Amino acid sequence: MAGQIQLEQVINGLNLDLSWEYAAMVQYIQHASMLTGPEYVAVISELQEHAREEHNHAVILSDLIQYLGGVPTVEVATRLTSLNNVEMLRQDLQAEYDAIRRYLQRIEQLEALHLYDSAQKIRNIAATEQEHAIDLEKALGIQKVRPGTAYPFTLSP
Ligand SMILES: [Fe+2]
Ligand SMILES: [Fe+2]
């Protein structure tokens, strides 16, 4: 029974992840349209690519939830926007940090159930989120040469 409860917990977690993937897709499409200025031309293309990848993640998660015996959510989590270029990119980066943190937890949960194949799918998604975070850190000019400090997962104000 403990395994069944753990499985339900991970399915609930994956549904939360799915609602955030839908939100990320919507947010990136909107931010790509709203970013403006010559220095953001390349970033706009990046964000459009991110939106397509978040869509792919949503499809993978939806199929995985169904495979594990759950019902994929149609809920969309909170979307953020701004009229300020930098603020939009910071919103996107914080969302990526949050996604990575959730996916690392999900990998642990799935592996605890010996669902290594499902965990591998989440690992692949997490690796793409890391690429998204790197893209955004570079676009924001964030310098991370801080030896000895833990990976923050939270943007300082
Ligand atoms: Fe994603
Ligand atoms: Fe992402």
Automatic annotation (TrEMBL):
Highest rank taxon of the organism: Bacteria
GO cellular component annotations of the record: cytosol
An example Gene Ontology biological process: intracellular iron ion homeostasis
Gene it is expressed from: Bfr
PANTHER family listed in its UniProt record: BACTERIOFERRITIN
Protein name as it appears in the record: Bacterioferritin
Domain Ferritin-like diiron, residue spans: 4-147
Molecular-function annotations in GO: ferric iron binding; ferroxidase activity; heme binding
Keywords: Iron, Iron storage
TM stretches of this protein: none
Pfam families: Ferritin (PF00210)
InterPro entries in the record: Ferritin-like (IPR012347), Ferritin-like_diiron (IPR009040), Ferritin-like_SF (IPR009078), Ferritin_DPS_dom (IPR008331)
